[in-house]
Amino acid sequence: MEVEAAKLIGAGLAVVGLGGVGAGIGNIFASMIASGARNPGAIPRVQLFMWIGFALVEAVALYALLISFLILFG
Predict the structure, then answer these.
(1) Closest by Cα among 26, 25, 46 to 35
(2) Domain tally for the chain?
(3) Is residue 2 part of a domain?
């Protein structure tokens, strides 16, 4: 196998985790909408945790993208 083909396969495998990130972000915001619909008074208390969870899940996406770019261009 050529080195360039191995790089492309490795970069593709590195971004497989982005599917889970998309599902995680969808789950976070769906839970926020559902909890806000049930109890609108709790939105300010829940919103902080929503943003923290979003940032942590998005960080996983950035790490996967970084690894993919390092494999491709490194």
Answers:
(1) 46
(2) 1
(3) no
